[in-house]
Each structure stands twice: as C-alpha cells, then as structure tokens.
Write a structure and sequence with these properties.
The chain is α/β, with parallel strands linked by helices. It is built from seven helices and 13 strands. The strands form three sheets. The protein has a six-stranded mixed sheet with strand order 9-8-10-11-12-13, sandwiched between helices. Helix 6 packs parallel to helix 7. InterPro entries: Cytidine_deaminase-like, FdhD. It is found in: Cytoplasm. Required for formate dehydrogenase (FDH) activity. Acts as a sulfur carrier protein that transfers sulfur from IscS to the molybdenum cofactor prior to its insertion into FDH.
Length: about 270
C-alpha cells in the first residue's frame, strides 16, 4: 500500500540575508476514488496511508454501511487511486445524489452538502465514560507526542481515539475528517466498541467535526483549540462532552461537564 505521507523537494530558502538551495518536506495529497458496487461514490483527497480504514470509516459515517455484514469486500488499487467496495446490499435511493462527489481535503463549504444526511446518521451519545482532568491533559500530551510528521511539515491534522487508560490509537491526514474516518475504520476492522471512547483532535471543534464524532458514536471530544457556537449547540443536543483549549495544564468544558470528574486527593 502507498505509504508516502511525506516527499522531499528542492526549494530556495531565504535565510540570514542569503538565498540558499535546500530541500524541504511536503505532505502528499492523494485522490482516492471510492467505487461502491461498481458505481462511483466519492473521491476523497487524503494522505495515502491507512486507506482501507479511511474507506470503511467514511462509508460507515455516511450510513452506507450500517453493520459489518453489509460489507462484502474492499480492494485498494493505490497505483490508480481507486478503492473498489462491494456490499451485500444496494445503496438505495438516499445515495443517488452522492455519486461522483469530490471531497476536498480543506475544511468548510466543500462538505456543506452533507448536512441533511449528517443529521440522519448522527447518533445521540449513550456513553457513560468519565475522565479525570489528569486523563484529559495526558491524552492531549500523548497526541502531540505522536504527531511526528506534523512537527516536520505543519501540514497535517492529527487525531486519536482512546479509552483514557490503556487504549490509544493515532492517525493523521491532510483532511481533518479523514483522520477521524481512519480511526473509525480502525475500530470497525477490529470490532472495537466506540461508545465509551474519546476522540482527541488537533484542530478546532467545528459543527462538522462534532457531527463526525456523533456518527462515530463517542461521548467526548477533546481539542487544543476552541469550538464553534454551532458545535456547542450540537454537543448539548447530542449528549457529547466537548472540551477545548487544552493547553498549559488547563482546559474548558463546553458541554455535558458531568463526564469530567472532580480532581481527587491523589491529583492535588
């Protein structure tokens, strides 16, 4: 499988009053066209690693796959940029409009057409997970420590899923939604329950990211950045705890603070 997340290219750099020839790291953009039952479903602009996880997570979050038995096979042809998916069912009329879409790696309006279907697939969280402040801070520290490529390039979104204790899995991608889809796909492949898990994210918590968390089914999302007003409203409605500005030993809880335990005597 294609794993070249980084490429090195020659550049001219201005440094200390002089122009010098050197090289720099670039993140790789890779268009992956997802074919479902022989028809084009979407083209996702992504980082070219963990592609099967990405496809699984994307289709599951869109509602194209509702249970593991819906999936017959996935074949990744990274030399041509295709993922061939065969399901044990038809997609149905709801997805007719979805064919031949391009899902850009950027954020914002490129995904606006999702909104009606998003609310149909997003789930109100039933999670009963609770975390201590120390666990919240430790998970963000661990995410930042795992983000080696980001430190080299500054060009990737980083995300992880964890239970706050022993389980922690990290993914990165040029697209923030893609990073979350890869984590979701990882859990689907390994039949890992997501209900009592936490998403840790490097970027701001927008409404789109909050809806993605609701589609995955987690009860909490943590970020070093701020949420948007719509994200907070959705988090309240969908019973998701949104925690932001996790920096320098501090953080803000914007919704459902009951999942954050008070500091106990051992942490003071």
């Amino acid at each position: 499988m294609h794993e070249d997340v980084l490429t090195n290219q020659p550049i001219v750099r201005y440094e200390q009053g002089a122009l010098i020839q050197t090289t720099d790291h670039y993140v790789t953009e890779f268009p992956l066209t997802i074919m479902v039952n022989g028809s084009e479903f979407a083209t996702v602009i992504c980082s070219p690693n963990h592609l099967e996880e990405l496809v699984l997570g994307f289709l599951a979050s869109e509602g194209a796959i509702l249970k593991s038995t819906d999936l017959k096979s996935i074949q990744i042809d990274d030399s041509k940029g295709f993922a061939h998916v065969h399901l044990n069912k038809e997609l149905g009329e709801r997805f007719e409009y979805s064919t031949k879409r391009t899902i850009a790696s950027c954020c914002g309006k490129s995904r606006a057409f999702y909104f009606q279907n998003d609310m149909a697939v997003a789930k109100t969280s039933l999670s009963d997970i609770t975390l201590t402040p120390t666990q919240v801070l430790n998970m963000m520290t661990r995410l930042q420590s795992a983000s080696k490529v980001f430190k080299q390039t500054g060009g990737l979104h980083n995300a992880a899923i964890s239970d706050g204790e022993t389980f922690f899995e990290h993914r990165q991608d040029i697209g923030r939604h893609n990073a979350l889809d890869k984590l979701y796909g990882y859990c689907i492949q390994r039949h890992i329950p997501v209900r009592n898990k936490v998403l840790i994210f490097s970027g701001r918590i927008s409404s789109e990211i909050l809806i993605k968390a609701a589609k995955i089914g987690v009860g909490m999302i943590l970020s070093k950045s701020a949420p948007t007003t719509l994200a907070i409203t959705l988090a309240q409605d969908l019973n998701i705890t949104a925690v932001g500005f996790i920096r320098d030993g501090n953080f803000n809880v914007y919704s459902h603070p009951e999942r954050i335990k008070a500091v106990d005597a051992n942490e003071t």
